[in-house]
Amino acid sequence: MTEGAWLYILRCADGSYYVGTTRSSLEIRVAEHNAGTFEGYTSSRRPVELIFSQWFERITDAIENERKLKKWSRAKKEAFIRGDFASLQQLAKRKSPHSSV
Q: What SS3 state is found at 42?
């Protein structure tokens, strides 16, 4: 387990989502969030609950996906968490037509 990493999503007490990665066990990492071990987004939004996780063989892949998910809207994150890929595709489409001038 030394080369890879977990991508995870937490639901915070205020209903917001936190996306992160860790090389340690998920149980330890969630406990660290709930203990306020590190200052940051979740420290004032405890308790947190693990609602999604995915193992990546390479940490670079986990980090790349973390960065992508952090840019997504709440609706896209929720569709992803549910595994609702049809909705995810709809949400990914442009909201306004692209002009070709």
A: helix
